[in-house]
């Protein structure tokens, strides 16, 4: 696939992908593949480009055959995909040919060959074939000849038109007209939807509530995005106060909170890209991801990496492209990729995908990560580095790789405090020294489980003990009953500590690792 990166394009109010397509057409690219769910909107943009560049415009579909810009059919026989390509081959005037939903025919040897012929014949003739469709399916023979453009989801300007249409269609006098600030917020809330979806969502709100109801718009949008099946909108209630320890990580994240504003750009701060949290299971990686969502007050989108690979519907590459596009259109937001390596190990065992697919999906992701300019903060979490593709870990991909180890003594004290208080027990009534001493090598999750398990014991023993009843001895007993993961996976932990000491930043002051393995890369707050 040719790179479709475009040099400085003038800001003329059009969406970036329209400018990108125009650039490719002007540069005489013979074959352009536009991936979009919005056929009408993208085709309208192509018609405008044809007009501006004084080229004829044809569209083809399986049902209509080849149709010229004035609506004249080139004959029923051109419905046949092969005949359509012949038609393109024969016409010699400068033109843009849009082939709607041609992807099923890209498997046919004749069509592949004919497109390759066209790729060779069209340059310098001011003729461009645009393949327009919702999915990208390219045989490897064609990859080098085709420039791919992912069509952008609507900008605020486009969504304003959708809102105007919905308002225009509402019965006069029956609905409350939104003032300007409410219109702005409604448009913000609809970012991430196609123009048609947005119009439907606005109309639904007008019918249901007789006004623009932001709650309806947001709920509908989240519903539509969930339907993609790979992205989930989360509304986490976790806060930084609910995380014991991880001070260096928390400080880093808190410092980046304001870095997404225009003022920060003007000041010269780069846009934060994202971080990778690596570490031992149950030590607060997912917890931190959720807490960042509420601290930064940004939408938190969780990408299910397992589903990206595992689904039988659509291709894995398609899934990741759709997810990244959606995240960009909702930005500023946080894109959370939880348990990255689980998706990868699932690949090996599912038999659905192969190594080639994995490499391409990660390739798409890594390229996007490297080049993205939109305020999408990526938060990836993983516990096994060995399974991750090395290119993901290379410098420049993430702002930082943080290593999260088992909680230190001070951190365990805080974690006990948090989880006792969460269950209505006053930590001041407990001998925390004893609890901390008995939980060496336990993860945050194991500490939480011990507290919960002790609660069950306490209730079993004395159901009328009152809401404060929970003897420390029962918590100590629950700890004794648990074999912490760190005991069973000693070797893995040693390995990941070794790896992280030189390649990652510590999420906290892990003096024990320094003592055991030598000095770390850096321990200061950044
Ligand atoms: N540092 C911590 N402070 C408070 N609670 C913690 C901490 N670490 C873990 N927990 C508790 O354990 C639960 C599980 O932790 P979490 O899901 O964040 O682990 P993880 O690091 O993502 O593990 P995995 O690698 O298995 O996904 C949390 O929801 C929280 O209740
Ligand atoms: Mg997790």
Q: Major sheet: order of its strands?
A: 7-9-10-11-8-12-13
The residue-averaged pLDDT reads 87
C-alpha Rg (nearest Å): 28 Å
| Percent in helix | 40-55%
Question: What are the segments in which pLDDT stays under 50 over at least 5 consecutive residues?
Answer: 1-13, 346-350
| Strands, count | 13
Number of continuous helical runs: 24
Structural overview:
The protein is built from 24 helices and 13 strands. The chain is 50% helix and 13% strand. Strands 7-9-10-11-8-12-13 form a 7-stranded mixed β-sheet, sandwiched between helices. It has 4 domains: 16-150, P-loop containing nucleotide triphosphate hydrolases (Rossmann fold); 156-227; 240-404, Rossmann fold; 409-440 and 444-483. By secondary structure, the chain is of the alpha/beta class. Helix 7 packs parallel to helix 9, helix 14 (316-330) packs parallel to helix 16 and helix 20 (444-461) packs across helix 21. Strand 4 (95-100), helix 4 and strand 5 form a beta-alpha-beta unit. It binds adenosine-5'-triphosphate and magnesium ion (MG). Adenosine-5'-triphosphate is lined by residues 243-246, 281-287, 339, 381, 383, 407, 415, 418, 444-445, 448.
Keywords:
six-stranded mixed sheet, 526 residues, seven-stranded mixed sheet, Rossmann fold, binds adenosine-5'-triphosphate, disordered N terminus, binds magnesium ion, 4 domains, alpha/beta, 24 helices
